């Protein structure tokens, strides 16, 4: 029976140490597709922000934590945030002198605060590489490039936990925050903002219904706390050996470290390849 496979990106496909996808993972995904299994990215990113994992050969994706679904490189389902709510939320962040990235189905657009933080993070980690390379690979642009498109997700970075508490109190009730997210600020005052009730798990359910498939044929691969709903939703949950301890409790199968061919080993053990 063919399965539908869901892959997180950071820490699952891309190594946090080498910033590369292990060749064994690329080969395993290719073999799984040849065996008739459907492969989807399942990510908080927009579709254009998955460019850096294009070598994995996965064209389909659940994006922005369940707010959108891309099939054959085109959006089939998009849940956008009301423009007035977006405007009100960004105004609140700016009042706190915070950072944000607004994400449509294609790219992420950063205000000056987040753009500078991202640039510094790239330089700190890879001092010999032009930061523009990473911005391009990650589909991250400046706010000046924003084309007024519909927004699916907002990444937020605030300056303190006190600001985060105020933000929670004043946040529009239609929105929900997952703290300790973001690409470069894994802290208690940074996170990801989507419409209430949406997450990677709801995106999987919506896709399964669209494809008229059975949830029993789903397998997900993840490594961190924002994969929780994805792992709880699928029939078989695989957590990478390098995954966080808090997420391993949701695993049906814990595989090896990403840099020790963990993804390929798991797919072989599950008879996908």
TrEMBL record:
GO CC annotations, alphabetized: cytosol
PANTHER family: HAD SUPERFAMILY HYDROLASE-LIKE, TYPE 3, PHOSPHOSERINE PHOSPHATASE
Name assigned to this protein: Cof-like hydrolase
Record bears the keyword Magnesium: no
Protein keywords: Hydrolase
GO MF annotations, alphabetized: magnesium ion binding; phosphatase activity
NCBIfam families linked to this entry: Cof-subfamily (TIGR00099), HAD-SF-IIB (TIGR01484)
Pfam families named among the record's database cross-references: Hydrolase_3
